[in-house]
Each structure stands twice: as C-alpha cells, then as structure tokens.
Protein 1
Amino acid sequence: MGIKKKIKIFIDVLMFADFLFLMSHEFTRDLYAHGCLGIALFFLFLVHHFLNPGFFRSLLKGHFNRQRILLCTTDLLLLLLMLLMAFSSVMMSGSIFEFSSIQMTSWSRPLHTFSCSWGFLVMGFHLGIHLKRFLDKLPAIPYISLVIFSMGLGLFCAIHSEFYVYLFQMNMWKRSATNLFQCVGELLGMTAGMIGVASLFGKRKKAP
C-alpha cells in the first residue's frame, strides 16, 4: 500500500471519528469544541476531495453504468449535504465564536440538524459502496448473514435512538440514548446498517 493510499485512509478515519463526536453533541455539550471540530470536519472533507481529484475530472467523461451512477449520485448528494452543514454552521457561528457577528436565525438550527442527520446516513452508504468489494470476497452464506445482521442492527438503532425523527422533522436535537457510549454505539450500528444497504446495490462478485 502506497503512502498516498495510507494518508487517504487516515483522513477518512479522522473524518468518521470527528463526525461521531459531532453527532454526539447531546452528551459532549461543549459548543466551542463542537464548532472547532465542525470546522475540522469540513477541512478534512476538502482534503479528502483534494486527494481524490479523479472524481471531478472524470465526472462528465466515459460511460455511466448503474454502479457509476450510484456512486456519482451518492458523492454529489454528500457534497450538497456537507455544504448545507457548513452554511448552517456559519449562520449559527455568532452563538459559538466571539469573533463572529452573525446572528443565529430561526431556520439555521433546523437546517443544521436536518443536513447532519441525512449527511451521516449518506456517509455510511458512501462507505458501504467502497467496502463492497471487500464484502464480496466472503462466501455466500457469511455474506448474506452479515448483510442481514447489519441492516437489522441499523434499523433497530435508528428506531431505538429515534434518529428517524430528525430525517423528516427539523426539530431540537434530542435522542433517547442515556449516555455517550450508547449514543456512539447506536451511531455505529446505523453506519453498519447503511453499509449493509449499500451492499445490495450492484452485482456481487463471486468469492474465489
């Protein structure tokens, strides 16, 4: 594995860990740290795209099969949601950073909650698309069992945490988890669920 590939993986791991912390704000309760790590997340997102310039260079080139359409749609949707996260964050920055004179509007927090919730799920789906080639190496029975288990776990976590509320109702951020570890565990479970969903798309390559 080359050094550039290792850096890409390291950046992606940092992004995911950062996103987990930000999505656990209900328990961390540190607005200043939340704001700083939010800025760091967007910076890492830019670095991620800087290290993967081929996506934009080839966006309008070549043949679009179903797998490429799925990947491009997911990437563009995630980009849009990240921009909405950043925009809504800027509109709330006056309540976090003293140097910002921007006054928080009535719609900035609901928009932030909405874009973060969908962004987290789309990120999990995006991760699943890239992990599919590794899952495809599993024999049929373990593969099917793992996919069913991960989707069941994700659905359970989404229902138990009431995460689904914030996908359709832009309300105050409050979930049913009683502590930070439960909150992170439910977020990881939903990520596993989205990876399982992503594995259903595209033709599965038979394991050797």
Protein 2
Amino acid sequence: MSEVNRPQSMVYQSYSPLPAGKWTRILILDPGARGDPIECSLHVAKFDTEAYDAISYVWGNAAERRSIQCQGHQVNITTNLFEALRQIRHPRKPRRIWADALCINQSDLVEKSFHVNMMGDIYAHAQQVAVCLGDDGQNGEVASVAFSVIQDYNRIAAKYLSEDVLSSRKWWKPDDGYGPVTTTRLQNVLPVFKHPWFERVWVLQEVGLAKNVVLAYGSSMIDFVEVMDFVQAWAQTGNSFPGIYFRSGHISNLFTYIWSSYVKDAEDAWFRSSRILKVLFQQSLKGPKIEILDVLFRARHIQKATDHRDFVYAFLGHPRARSNDGELLVKADYSKNLSQLRLQLFSRLSPHSLRFLGLVFHCLPEELASGPSWCPQLDVSRAWGINGRYEACPGEVPTSEGWLSPRVDGSSLEVSLYLIDTIDFCGKVAAREQSNSNQATTTTEEPGHRIAESMLVQHPSLAESYWSVLEESEKCHGLTYQDKVLAFASTLLHTKEDEDALSIAHSFAQFCETYCPSVHSYLHIHNWMERWDTGEAPKYYIPFRQRAANSIQGERFFTSAKGYW
C-alpha cells in the first residue's frame, strides 16, 4: 500500500461495505497462460483466518492503465499491477491474492485508513509475499540471466563469507577468480537493483513482516533470500567488475537497519534459510536498543514516499509502533495533515522518552511554520541519522524518573531542563536562502551537499565566514580549545581532532590555500603548519571540501558564551 489517493477511475467501483472487524477482500485470480486475459473476482474474508498470498509492487504511473475482468466487469488498473498479476498467475489453478488497489475500496477514505492500520497484520498473515518488478522488456531473457548469475555469485561467496568476515565487515575476494560470473552477465543484474521498488517506504513493512518472500521479474522467480545474500556479499567485496554499480550499500542497509528490526527470532523469519543474513541479524542484536524513532528516521533517510504521512503510516505494523498498553502510537487517518500527525505522534512519545528532541532539525525559518518547533520534521532528510556521534542523549531519556515531567499543552511541550551554556554568535545556514513567500518554490531542488559545497568554494568562502564568527567570539569570551584551528577544522568535518590530527591538519591547510585566503594567512602568520611538519605522511587523504559539505549541509556554525562551538 503506497499511495492511497490515486484516481478512482482506475479501480473496480461496485464494492459493498465490509463487516466490522478484521475483514478485507481476497482477490481470486483465475488461472491462465501469460498472454491470456486476466480474470478475477473478489471474496470478502477475515484475513487472519484465510490463506492467501500478498503482492508488493510499485503503483507506477496512474495514466498508464490496462484492462482486466473483475466480477464480470471491465476494470482499469495500473500497468504495474497488471504485470504483477500476470507474473504470479498460476497456469492451472486459481490463486488467492491480496492486492491493495483492488482489495481496498479506494473511494472510501475510512476503509483505506482502516486497512493502513491493519496493513502489518495483512502482510504478516500472508502465506507468501511476492515482490513483483514487472516485465524485463526482453521476453524474460534479462531476468533469467540475472537470477542465474546471482545464484552463481552466491555459490562462490559462500566459500569465503565466514562468520568472522561477515561480523567484521572485512573485504573478500575469491582466490581462483569468479568463474561464470562475468561483467557481461552481471549487466543483467543492474535493472533488478535499480528498480524503484527498492526505494518505496512501504516495502519495508511488506517484507519485514512476511513469512516467505519471492521476487518475480520478467517470467522468472527467485527466493528473495538469494537476492539479499547477493547484495550483502557484493557490499563486502571490492570493485572487481568496473562498470557494474548499484546501490548495494543502500539495499544492504534496508536489511541491517530496518528489516531485521521486525524480527524476534531468525528461525521464524523470511531469511531463516540464509546463513549470511542470520549472522548479520545476530550482529544487530548486539547494537543499541531499537526504538520506533530509529526505524522512522533511518527509513526517512533512504526511502521515498509520495505522501509524507506514509513515513509514519508505513510502519504501523512494526512491533515497536505500539505503546506499553498495546495500543498503536497513532492510527492512520488521511484526513489529518502532516503537521497534525507530527503533533499527535510526538505527543504520544513524550511521556515515555524525549529522545526525539535530538532529531529536531529546522534548516530554514519557513520550516518553523509547518508545525510545532519541538516536533522533528517527517519530510526532511537529515545529513546524519539517529544514534550518530553527536546525539546529545544516547539511549533512552527516562521521563519516568519524574524530574523531566514532560507535558503537552495544546501544541506546546513543557519540560524541565538543565541550562549548560548559551549560544552566543551564529553563522549563516549552509543551505539555500529562504525563498520569497510571494513566489512559488521550485520543484527541482539541488541536493543539500551541493549547495553547501558551492558555499564553501565561493568568495568569500562560507568557512571564512564561520572563522570570523569564531574570532568575534574569541574577542568577547575567549576560547576553550588549545588548538582552535584543529578544533575548527574537525568541527567542519564532524570528527574529533584527536582521531587523526595530522590528516585533518594537512587537508584543512590545502583547502584554505585554495579557497580561504584570510584563514590561510592566519595559518602562515602563526606558523601553524610548522607544528605538523614532522616528516610523517598523513595516514589518510581527506577530501576536505566534499566531506565538509556533506557534514555541514543544512546547519550553521555557532559559538557559546563559555567558548565552545
């Protein structure tokens, strides 16, 4: 279920109201060969007692439609759903399927909200979830070769990916080459992993709760476990095949950070047959305790949703989406706007934990108008995620202790606090300037790190502007750091100055020589680089401009009254 507000002409209209309770409609898909017309009917049933399979797919362009026969009526559905039904249809016997666009009355807002609240249960009760990527455009040849080379690669990787290699994330490479795995054959794999399905926010729940998962592409089908084994193995090998690039790290993180968090016991999970995935699952259990915030904001960073409310609603089936009394933190209600949803969600979370305050991130003043300032944005991706190095409150913030006493009054959060310092001087935000409120904003936004990078290389550089803030603060309050240059450079890189001071110093000096003449002049006058002239080569090469741009995007440099920044 990805987009609940599709045009109504695309779906069957003659729906009878569902009974109260856990009722839905099951699609009975008539048998047929791949080229036969698609015929089906709808059967009202309790989803927790009926046997059925569920499909996971991308809705696609609503303007691209195909016709099927449903209940004897001609119904127009998206091309993607048409291809999905064609892929999973059995040639000789009917199949019982759950498909959101047909099984939900899309013109009934109440019914849609009910199904979104129960979506987790629907996918958890399915006998199997079929991930449908559609036609490969080559009569099934691309898909056939892709799945074959995935299996060949996995057989090779199994010899080298020991538990130690997996746990330590070490690189591996076969001693005797890759055999049948060639660049030419691997070209067929790229369309699989570049498919927009891997970017949908709803797929996280649809797969995370599944008992079994298969992936259908073209006229072929493969166990999804083999697909993810391939991704994990590929993510731990070097670039042995130049030109073969896909977002293996992105897809690997879907499992590491999201899919594994749905599971209590690996032996009951869809990946129970995978040694590789079970090792990675056990590793995830050794990390910090996962809260619903971790899931929501990690997903926000890597997935997409047309309706930003779905960054919450797509996870209502997650085990941690319920409070201690078993009630959902929020219920899907598409009559509420995003601002109302944010207030409701974080109001419900506040009595249990205030950890979400570490995720408040307003890049521009206009963002403050989109809802309560203490509620994190659900539709803005942060440059770093929760549990990062600079999280001010690692772990839970125990509001149950009593001294915090959080209370939500209307749209305001009231809470006790300790005052540790005061922000004194501020630089400007490393982001696009605020748009004119009288003008429509552009729909094509330049990536944040590109904007920040352009501000670093312009004249005067943003880094010079921040350095001026530092010097002004020093005149008024003095500074706490022994080496203000190294501390300043480390701040722009989001790192610690004692981790690799020599590499940081060399990279910053080179950056200043090119882009920051005033700072470079300071380094020269104070002989700052001479102290790093030890004859020892830097341990690492740090591309200062690019890394700093990634680190500071959407942020601003500030100093405090006690001389910190």
Protein 3
Amino acid sequence: MEVAEPSSPTEEEEEEEEEEQSVEPRPRTRSNPEGEDRALGAQTSVGSRSEGEGEAASADDGTPNALGAGPKPWQVPPPAPEVQVRTPRVNCPEKVIICLDLSEEMSLPKLESFNGSKTNALNVSQKMIEMFVRTKHKIDKSHEFALVVVNDDTAWLSGLTSDPRELCSCLYDLETASCSNFNMEGLFSLIQQKTELPVTENVQTIPPPYVVRTILVYS
C-alpha cells in the first residue's frame, strides 16, 4: 500500500506567501490612524527622487550645445574720443558781450508778473541783464561788459566797460521794431571786429589773460 507523501511547497507558493505577508495592513494606532505603511511610501518617494536626479545628470552629460549657443567672448569697448577743452579750468577775467533781441515780438504783453499785471519779454530781459551784470561785477571787478542789440542789423551800443552803470544807462532806452529774419554771421563778424581773442599755447596749463563770452537773449 502506497502512502502519498505531503508535497513540499514550491518556490512560487513561497513567494506568494511572502507577498501576502508584506501586504498585510499595519495596525491602527494614534500616530497612524489609517494604518498606512509609511516606510513603503518613503521608499517609493526616495526612488522617484533618485530617478529624477539621474535624468538631470544624464541631461547634463548629454551632447554639447550647438555652435553659437554659448556665451559670446567679452569685447573691449573702443576708447572714447579725446575732447579738447579750449577754456581754462581756473577763474579768469571775462569780457562778456550781451546781445539783446529787439524784434517786435519782445514787446508783446505775453507774460504775467507776480501781482497779476501784464508785461513783455523785453522788460523781463532788461531786469535780468542788469541783475546779472551787477552780480558778476561784485564777484570780480575786472570783468568787462558790452551791449549789442539785434534786429535787422546789429548795433554795438555800449563798449567793453567794467562799470555796470555805464551799460545799464543805455539798457532801458530801447525800442523794438518788426523784423523778418536775421543772419547770425553779421553778429559774429561784429564781435570779431570789436574784440581780440587771446592767444595761448596750452590753455590747460597757462591760463589766458581773459576769456570772451557771448550771451544771446532772444524771443
């Protein structure tokens, strides 16, 4: 009589039993009321993170960038052009030539004073010139001033003088007239005839005896 021996479990059955044991839910506790297996979730997240890092590493180790995609080499900017300064860097006596426009537009009452009364550009310019000349004279008594009026033609009214009263005496006795156009070349030619520009070799190291400045006040 043959007795059947109990068959030993196969390897597949052993693996299934191990999986069932691993899938068994964890007991519910206060810290884990849902009975979740946190260790398994942590392992899964760590694995996914390492996979992402591996992808980034593989992307960095990939083929080099295409030509021209890299940073351009730094270029040295061209040197700035040298600026030649023709005026001294120290205070010098000045010959100031004030040119005042006497066109008809200067006498039109377009401006309003502080008290509400109407005034024109000529009155404002006359007061401004007088204030400028007197203030400039207080700073340096050696400054000289001249007054030139501009209309259809140019007229040299007051020669170069260091006395502000002499210039202001002929500043307010002026009348405007209609003027269609004006050529600046005539003004510059008159200034060259009445004044002489100082000649110096190096104005930066040796200041000239004086400088000539021209101020044009026009409407």
Protein 4
Amino acid sequence: MIEIPKKEPLNIVPFIDIMLVLLAMVLSISTFIAKGEIKINLPASKTASQAENVKDPLLVQVDAAGDLFRDGTRVSFEELAEAIAGIPRDKPVLLRMDRESKFEHFIRVIDLLKEHQHENFRIATERKDG
C-alpha cells in the first residue's frame, strides 16, 4: 500500500521572531528621528557673520511656543538654570531663538546667563541677502 505523506503545519514561530525584531528596530529608529527634530526658524540679519568653529557649545533653543531645549532635550527654565550654573564661565553658549518666540523668552535666557556671570554666548541668525 502506498502511504501518502502528511502535510506538516506551517511553522510560524520564525516569522513572528523576525517581525518582533523588525518592530523593535522601527520603534528605536523612530525615537531617534523624533528627538532630533526641533522646528526653529531663525531670525534673519543682513549683518550676520559666519560662526567661528566653537568647540562643544551649550546649545540653548527656544521654539515658537516658548519651549526651552538644552542640547536638543526639552527642559524647564529651572533645569536650564541648573545647567548654566554647572558649566564653566568660559564654555560658549549658542542661543537659537525662533523668530516667532516672544522677546520675553529671549530676555529671560539672557538674564539667566548674566545672573551666572556667563557672557560667552552667541545668538544664531540666518543671513539675509539683499
């Protein structure tokens, strides 16, 4: 008598493993992409000069809504004050303020720098031709 081989069920465990690895990769990559995206529209200036190569500046950003960022991470005003108090006075600070942010936010950051006798800061602008 001829035996008909039985069909074995499809083993889907390896497929599930691959899908979980791919899901983990997508989630981790999307986290890095979201963190690096801070919308800042710099103010334009006809007299803006090319920034010198500043080594390892503390990057302070204020977006249009007035949210503060230190080196790309959202912080409160108190956390920014602690960060500025904890750095040497000769460490450069680069201010990137959105052109739509309130002037009050700019003054608060400048006051904070002056309060800690930190005068080594630069204000980032876009060069406006014409």
